[in-house]
Write a structure and sequence with these properties.
Radius of gyration: 23 Å
Bound molecules: NADP nicotinamide-adenine-dinucleotide phosphate
Order of helices and strands: HEEHEHEHEHEHEHEHEHHEHEHEEE
Structural class: alpha/beta
CATH topology of the largest domain: Dihydrofolate Reductase, subunit A
CATH superfamily of the largest domain: Dihydrofolate Reductase, subunit A
Shape: elongated
Distance between the termini: 27 Å
Amino acid sequence: MRAAVRLAARGHGGAEPNPLVGCILTNPTGAVIARGWHDRCGGPHAEAVALAVAGERAKQSTVYCTLEPCAHHGRTPPCADALIAAQVSRVVYGSSDPNVIASAGAARLAAAGIVVEQLECDEVRVLNGPFIHRIRTGLPWITTKWAITLDGRITTGDGGPRWITGESSRKLVHRERGRVDVMLTGIGTLLADDPDLRPRGVRARRMPRRVVIDKQLQMSESCRLLKTVNDSPVELIVFPEVIEQQSEKISRLRALGVRIEPLERGDDGMLILRPLLLRLGREGMSNVLVESGGGVNGELFNERLVNEVWVFQAGIVVGDGRGVGPIRGLAMPAALPPSTRCVAIDRVGDDLVSRWLVERA
Ligand SMILES: NC(=O)c1ccc[n+]([C@@H]2O[C@H](COP(=O)([O-])OP(=O)(O)OC[C@H]3O[C@@H](n4cnc5c(N)ncnc54)[C@H](OP(=O)(O)O)[C@@H]3O)[C@@H](O)[C@H]2O)c1
């Protein structure tokens, strides 16, 4: 099942908003006879890929699949029917399919006399987390990523190096930019760093929409984001009154192709980000990568919207009175996530990279 999870991950960036699914067929002696994964939305499911590789050898095989095989006609025929037709003898699946339209595959397989078992290991839960979260809440999966110094700062202060982490870490981030649907940041980051937030130097599987929380419309009209607006869309989130107050700037930006959306204030006068993220979910966005400063991070934590934190830590020490931390304005302790669990630690170049799941976002 862990090997099937690793196969499934190869579809990241191509398969969404469908789930990432991997599938392995073994013969009665336990030897692997076929592998498959769902590589792109609209393309064949993992089970169909593996069955095609196995051909006649699929008969009497055991199928390991990270998600319950589907039982519905979508863009492709039901996998449960294909497995029955191939006369496999046993199906071991990871998570149940939370999608009511597609579920019931396990029952259909069992009714056809196939031995069906569920094996939901931790790796399967981590793999399927984003898909299950979106089906259950309508929200995209939100990963916030920050690069910090050894003493916990996301900025180095005046005169410090522009980049905190090394080239290999940055490459990893660019790869992820080319796999998510949305890059989200705040105006503080845009004004300080002028990032263009596109994937560079990697093979991008999709071009992310770039969304900026810019409540007062302070964005410079010469920023890099606007120079590349034809390559990947740019969306600005502003206070409602800004639409009228800055109508000329708004018209110029809209003429360039920038989407500008007003968002209502909460009781504290801040924008409430949940409606924005629900809309992104309705527009088919599955994964949001946040590369912002403490302002946007703080708001996302306060609204319990963060699902995953990706920390890149470098061996730089900034020292007293310089630099800032990655989260600002956290309403302690009520907004503290109840539990954050480390699911991966890697050394990348000279940096330490860790992934943390927020258990109840
Ligand atoms: N090392 C890293 O990984 C990394 C990554 C990105 C950025 N940075 C650094 O972070 C610094 C910028 O930090 P920052 O906190 O200013 O930037 P930010 O989070 O990008 O943007 C903050 C801005 O967004 C506003 N904002 C956020 N949520 C809001 C909400 N719900 N409603 C209304 N306004 C909201 C803030 O308003 P208020 O001012 O009213 O709070 C502030 O104007 C830069 O120095 C940049 O280099 C570091």
